[in-house]
Amino acid sequence: MKVKISRLIGGSILTLASVIAMPAFAQDAAAPEAQDAASAEDDRDDDIVVTGSLVARPNNVSVSPILSVSEELVQQSGQINLESALSQLPGFTPAGNAGTGGQGGGGRATLNLRGLGSNRNLVLLDGRRLPISDISGNVDINIIPESIVGNIDVITGGASAIYGSDAMSGVVNFKTDRYFDGVRADMQIGNSFRGDYLTFNASLALGGKFGGDRGRFMAAFSYATRDPLSGADRDVFADKVPSSFIGTGAFVPDALNLPSQAALSGIFTRYGINNTINRTLNLGFNNDGTLFVQTGALNYKGPTSGAYAVVGGNVRMPVGPQLQILNGFERKSAYAKAEYDLTGDITGYLQFLYVDTTVTTESGGSLTQFAPFTTIPVTNPFIPADLRTLLASRTNAAAPFRWSARYIGVPDKGWFENYNVQQYVGGLKGTITGDWKFDAFVAYDESVHDQQNFNAVLKSRVQTLLNAADGGNSICAGGFNPFGINNALSLSDACRSYITATITNTERLTQTQAQAQLNGPLFNLPAGPVQLALLGGYRKNTYRYDPSPDLVSNNIESVVGANPARGDISVREFAAQIDVPLLKDTPFFQELGVGAAYRYSDYDPSGGVSSYEFDARWRPFDPLLIRGSYQRAVRAPNIGELFAPVTGTQLAIGTPPVAIGDPCDVRSTARTGPNGTQVRALCLAQGIPAAAVDAYQFATTATGGNIEGNPNLTPENADTYNVGAVFNPGFSSPWLSGLSLSVDYYNIKIRNVISTINGLTVLSKCYNLDGSNPSYANSNEFCQLIQRDPTGSLIAISQPYLNLGALDTDGIDVQLGWSLKLADAGIASGSGRIYANTAVSWLNRYLVQTLAGQAAQDFAGTSTPGRPLPTWKALTTVGYDSDVMGVGVRWRYQGSQEDISSVTTPNAAQVGVPAYHLFDLFGTIDVTETAQFRWGVTNLFDRDIPFVASSQNGTDPGTYDVVGRSFYVGVRLNF
Predict the structure, then answer these.
(1) Cα–Cα distance for residue pair 212/549, rounded to 1 Å
(2) According to the model, what pLDDT value does residue 805 have?
């Protein structure tokens, strides 16, 4: 169906920002003359239309900025996932991405408006809540088959009073296609120009009538798949994440039981090396049984290419090539809805959604070791002679020793994440009397997430082999010899099977909803009817997590342990909204109206909260609409924030000095800077032994982060302001008749913010990198969140959920659109037109106050993985279309950004990210009246991936295009 937009009535920033053979965006509602006739015929009088308001306002205009995105936008993007298309738009910040949520993260895809968090915007399907996908209440956008989506309404301002908790930054409402008669088939295939990122999706939709035209039904089935993309396939990742854990294996000295200097010097003198070697440094194992110093690469005889490298004079294993940068993906879905006119005024309806999604990930053929560490007894028969001499020189010569390595003899560690989602909806809608309408429904949904970790290394089994007198040969053929690359790679199949297992974890979430809405006019005023909407509802969410016993006991290498979890929350709500038209068709007041909304929500266990909204709209003359609103939004804590048990995560801190790392590391800017003496004293106070502190290095790029719920949390609240204007002059000249402009200012202030404390922030504040601990006291509240083992090594950073400080952000969204019908301008005959549209977002502030009373930090214009906050972001499209074909070019722009360290650690600021430009080419051809062909090339000029210093991977795959130049072709058939 083609939709032509000649007039915008209620718009905001992102309207018309991307178009192909037809506009992809629509502002609020098109003028009556621009609506498609077939669509108008399908509208039913008993529908309560959700357009950013519970009441039907004059001309269907919303006082909140609304972006309406058509299905063509998804097709133009060349993506098979909705979040990948939407995240290109100004106003959205990339959040969880289906392609980047690997290593057991589930591959979930979420949406994030204004960078305020994916749990602060509400995601709906036809105005109803979708199944939640995790303990934090997020909705996985993967579960929405794009084949059923007609268009998407995005409210880019707070809407908590109208839609309920979670709508602090806005609402994304996916609208399914209207009922139709016939069959529609669609297929699309795409790939990178390098041939390594194949994508495919196909769908079939059926629609018709039954029961003497009293009933209507629609069913849709779809399938989508995408190949994974490995870091080895992109040169930019070849040297990324140079880990200190290496396949040769290494001896890790105990600062309290060091080998003698004489023994160490004697061994290396025999190698021809007369340097004085620090006794606290790790010593690696060459294949010939000799030792080498990992820091400095002294006597290193191993490889220096491929999986191994000498970086800065140190022996490292770059992990970037081993990772799946973008995950493999497969989705099967079925959707059906039907309605039947029970009487002339009452219609019953049913809806069913089923989605089976699988995401696969690999994190390489080598695994990092996490605490608690395995140890090697001095009785192990595989210990090389030189190491045995060194061990004997220790004060406690019989003590076992710690080792570090990567399990390069074990197959790739892989994750298999399967989501099975079902939702059932049943309801009644219709007319009670006159113009009063109602809609009541009940719904139940469940999401079951089965997670399997293949080739997981079991610490207990490794320890058994290391402790065995014969090195484990009596347990599995050859035993386990971790000394040197060749020995590590010669691990037998029997030993691989013995030390590895498939680990299974399951989480189950359910949601029960019941809601009734009543909508109609109270009475008439000279300017029109006063409209009232009433809503009452109940919702309950439950969560259950059953991890593997090996995960609970922290028995899996490179995975932080987790505990079983149970929890539920419920809410009873009442909401009311009123709209009052004050003036109409008078001088300077073509239209003037005000409105208000109120919602009371009683949460178990958080208690009762109230949210409210006031708005006004003024049209001084027909082409200009001025509107504004104020909202007090409230968000109650979710299940995870309230009840999550201590759950381990991997916290990337990087390697100093290019990243913050462990500030006690002698390579860190904290130790080498002007306050290095005070930092050293703090490190000693935290337990790093005096014998080790001046040579201490943290062995890897990540540590543990322990997240924990807090049942004493209170709701957070926000004040949201929106002021905007939409100008559609309607000039008589054909060159200007297609001109439109909208400008909107937003201001969102969130208080009592519920959040964990970012691990990097904890390190920055404890070690006074941002001035938070000028006395360098270990009693500092942030220092108390840092956990170290007896050797001083960083084990974990506690990250409990707390009611912290505040988030403040404001900015301006501008959209400018223009089109010209060539026939009207006398240039050509026919239906052809040219168009140009641009949407620009300007971020003024993004203030974060970690704790109440502390100074706020402004992150506007900074880059951090997963939350880029450029000052400027824009999407611009120019093109030509007609009744039979269309072609266009899209320009995606993101302004330059400073690295997040410029705010968190200004004395150690890293290089920022330059401005980022991508260009896409796309087009359509109507082959016949029933067949349309489409094509596109994304990242037309194969733009390189920018370097992101604060990312351990060196870039941000969720934000920037790591695929490179790619193409897609598709066809749609209607019967």
Answers:
(1) 58
(2) 87
Question: Torsion angle of alpha carbons 656, 660, 666, 670, nearest 10°?
Answer: 140
CB 933, CB 970: distance < 8 Å: yes
State how far Cα 437 lies from the chain centre.
38
Q: For residues 158 and 166, is the Cβ–Cβ distance under 8 A?
A: no
User: In Å, how far from its chain's centre is CA 970?
Assistant: 27
| Angle, vertex CA 75, rays to CA 69 and CA 77, nearest 5 | 85
Q: What is the pLDDT of residue 319?
A: 85
**Three-class SS state of 240:** coil
- SS3 percent helix, strand, coil of the chain, rounded to 5, is 15, 45, 45
**Triad 119, 507, 509: Cα angle to 5°:** 55
Q: What residues does 925 pair with on adjacent strands?
A: 885, 933
Q: Are 55 and 66 contacting, i.e. CB atoms less than 8 angstroms apart?
A: no
Answer with the residue of higher pLDDT: 647 or 433: 433
- Residue 759 has a CB neighbour count (10 Å cut-off) of 24
- The pLDDT of residue 77 is 56
Q: How many helices (H) does the chain have, and how many strands (E)?
A: 15, 46
pLDDT in tens, 364-384: 777 777 777 899 999 999 999
The answer to whether 401 touches 485, Cβ cutoff 8 Å, is no
Rounded CA separation 738/735 (Å): 7
Are the CB atoms for 53 and 627 separated by under 8 Å? no
Strands of 388-493 (E only): list them: 401-404, 414-433, 436-457
Please give the single-letter amino acid code of residue 119. N
Coil, helix or strand for 438?
A: strand
Cα separation, 781 vs 802, whole angstroms: 13
The CA-atom distances, in angstroms, between 497 and each of 493, 560, 959 are 6, 22, 39
Find the DSSP H helices in 616-675. 639-643, 669-672
Is the pLDDT assigned to residue 39 strictly greater than 50?
Answer: no
Q: What is the pLDDT of residues 883-895, one digit of tens each?
A: 899 999 999 999 9
Q: How far apart are CA 536 and CA 610, in angstroms?
A: 14
For every residue of 802-869, DSSP letters joined together read EE--EEEEEEEEEEEEEEEETTTTTS-SSS-EEEEEEEEEEEEEEEEESSTTSPPEE-TTEE-TT--B
Q: Which residue has the tokens 């020793």?
A: 401
pTM of this structure: 0.84
d(CA 964, CA 523): 59
Question: Tokens 């690999």 sit at which residue?
Answer: 362
Reported as a single tens digit per residue, the pLDDT across 602-629 is 999 888 989 999 999 999 998 999 999 9
| 71: pLDDT strictly greater than 70 | no
State the amino acid at position 271 in one-letter form.
Y
Calculate the CA 87 to chain-centre distance: 10
Asked if residue 303 has pLDDT above 50, the reply is yes
Confidence class for position 522, pLDDT limits 50, 70, 90: very high
**Is residue 236 within a helix (H) or strand (E), and if so which, with residue range?**
none
Chain-centroid distance of CA 625 in Å reads 35
Amino acid at 935: W
First to last CA, the chain: 13
pLDDT band at 825 (very low <50, low <70, confident <90, very high): confident
Q: Which two tokens stand for residue 822?
A: 């060539």
Q: What is the largest CA-CA distance in the chain?
A: 102
The secondary element (H helix, E strand) that includes residue 293 is strand 291-293
- What pLDDT shows up at residue 32? 27
DSSP assignment of 864-899 equals -TT--B-SEEEEEEEEEE-SSEEEEEEEEEE--BEE
Instruction: Examine the pLDDT at 97 and tell me if it is beyond 60.
Output: no
Give the count of beta carbons closer than 10 Å to the beta carbon of residue 306: 11
Q: In what order do the strands lie in the sheet with 314-318?
A: 242-243, 314-318, 309-311
Residues in contact with 75: Cβ distance below 8 Å, sequence separation at least 6, in sequence order: 20, 188, 934, 970
57: Cβ contacts below 8 Å, ≥ 6 apart: 63, 531, 579, 593, 595, 617
